[in-house]
Structure formats: structure tokens, C-alpha cells
């Protein structure tokens, strides 16, 4: 197994087979004169440093090829491995989930059983989203993301019913899942919202935050 690779970035270009709505990239890493091709998602590709970098890897061996998948952090790779352990979740879908939501928002969505936000990722239908939440909720509930300075738990998220209503409204207004998640996290501790489950109030504050 190759745990990680450290080297100079020789190239990073979009994969010929990647879809427009779920782009993936091939990163070529020069490690002491040997070039390793590593598949990464758009989020990782856009966060790469300009020169040397360290990439945590996961090797997938198939009958006709071997593919290295790359991640900038160890928790991200471990979450990828949790995702592909679920029936129906392949490597490409796992990469797409990490790309569209990011590690913390993805963990929160799974723990809270927010299948609506999960199924917004291309390749993830309602049944697959339900399976993700069912199989990984318990495993991830106590998963401590010490490297990110946070512990994800059910108590950290807004009530599922309220969150889903707010998310669907904001999605209809054209905001992305990441923007919505950032807004909800930002306004969650506002005094005006502390004791209310009024959906309109949450939507109003979320839009105000997103408009800044």
C-alpha cells in the first residue's frame, strides 16, 4: 500500500472521462524522478499548492488497471474509505460527494440523515442517500476529526426538518449546497434564532448572511 506521496507537481489536468457536473482531475506528482498519476476531485485540484505537496493516497486495483486516488488530508481519505464501504458507492461517487459537500458538511449530512442534501450530488439517488445515512450514521457519530479541530456529533446540527426546509428553499433560489451549509453554520448561534423553529426567520437570516 502507498500511504502518501510527496513530490513536485508536474501537471494537473481535467480527466477526459470526467463529467461536467462532477469533474475529476489527474495530478502527476514527480517523486524523485518518477511520475505518479493520481486522480483527485476538483476541490482538491483547486487547493493544491504551487510546488511541492503531500498527497494521501488510496489504491484501487482492478482487472485492467490500478488507480491511485489522492487527498490533501488524512481524514478526507479515511472518509473516502468509509464511503466506498457502502454498497452502491464507487470511487467516483465518493469523490463527487467529497467534492460537492466537503468533509465536515458531508459528515453532518450523513449523521443527521439529511438525504435531500446527499442526493443533490450527481450519481447519488434517494435510495443510495438513505443507505449512506443508515450504514454510516453510527460509525461517523463518534468520529473525531481532531485534525480539523472539530468533533462531529448529532448535537452540532440544526433539527433535520427545519434544515431540510431551509435548504430546499435556498436551493430553489440558486444557492449551492456549500453556500447553504456555510450560512446555516454562521447563523446557528444568532440570539434571534436561538429559541425559534420559524422557517421564515431562518431563511431570512440565511439570505441576509449570503448577501453580505
Description:
With 212 residues, the chain is of the alpha+beta class. It has three domains: 4-72, Beta Barrel (OB fold (Dihydrolipoamide Acetyltransferase, E2P)); 74-154, 5' to 3' exonuclease, C-terminal subdomain (DNA polymerase, domain 1, Orthogonal Bundle), CATH 1.10.150.20; 158-212. Helices cover 43% and strands 22% of the residues. The protein has nine helices and seven strands. It has helices at 42-45, 74-84, 91-101, 103-112, 115-118, 126-141, 160-172, 177-187, 199-210; strands at 4-14, 24-31, 34-41, 52-61, 66-71, 144-145, 150-151. It has a five-stranded mixed barrel with strand order 1-2-3-5-4. α2 packs across α3 (91-101) and α4 packs across α6. The chain is elongated and about 60 Å long.
Mean pLDDT: 84
Structural classification: alpha+beta
What is the overall number of helices? 9
Shape: elongated
Strand proportion, as a percent range, falls in 15-25%
Give the helix proportion (percent range): 40-55%
> In the CATH scheme, what's the topology name of the largest domain?
DNA polymerase, domain 1
The termini sit apart by 46 Å
Sheet with most strands: strand arrangement: 1-2-3-5-4
Main sheet overview: 5 strands, mixed, barrel
Task: Count structural domains.
Answer: 3
How many E strands? 7
Amino acid at each position: 500500500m502507498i500511504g502518501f506521496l510527496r513530490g513536485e507537481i508536474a501537471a494537473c489536468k481535467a480527466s477526459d472521462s470526467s463529467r461536467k457536473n462532477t469533474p475529476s482531475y489527474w495530478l502527476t506528482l514527480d517523486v524523485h524522478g518518477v511520475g505518479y498519476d493520481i486522480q483527485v476531485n476538483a476541490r482538491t485540484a483547486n487547493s493544491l499548492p504551487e510546488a511541492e505537496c503531500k498527497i494521501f493516497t488510496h489504491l484501487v486495483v482492478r482487472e485492467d488497471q490500478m488507480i491511485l486516488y489522492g487527498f490533501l488530508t488524512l481524514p478526507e481519505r479515511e472518509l473516502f474509505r468509509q464511503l466506498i464501504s457502502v454498497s452502491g458507492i464507487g470511487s467516483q461517487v465518493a469523490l463527487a460527494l467529497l467534492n460537492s459537500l466537503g468533509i465536515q458538511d458531508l459528515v453532518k449530512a450523513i449523521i443527521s440523515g439529511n438525504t435531500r442534501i446527499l442526493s443533490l450530488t450527481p450519481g447519488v439517488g434517494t435510495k443510495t442517500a438513505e443507505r449512506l445515512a443508515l450504514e454510516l450514521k453510527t460509525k461517523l457519530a463518534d468520529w473525531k476529526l481532531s485534525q480539523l479541530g472539530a468533533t462531529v456529533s448529532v448535537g452540532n446540527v440544526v433539527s433535520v426538518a427545519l434544515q431540510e426546509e431551509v435548504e430546499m428553499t435556498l436551493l430553489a433560489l440558486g444557492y449551492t449546497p456549500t453556500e447553504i451549509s456555510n450560512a446555516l453554520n454562521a447563523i446557528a448561534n444568532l440570539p434571534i434564532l436561538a429559541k425559534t423553529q420559524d422557517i421564515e426567520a431562518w431563511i431570512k437570516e440565511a439570505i441576509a448572511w449570503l448577501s453580505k
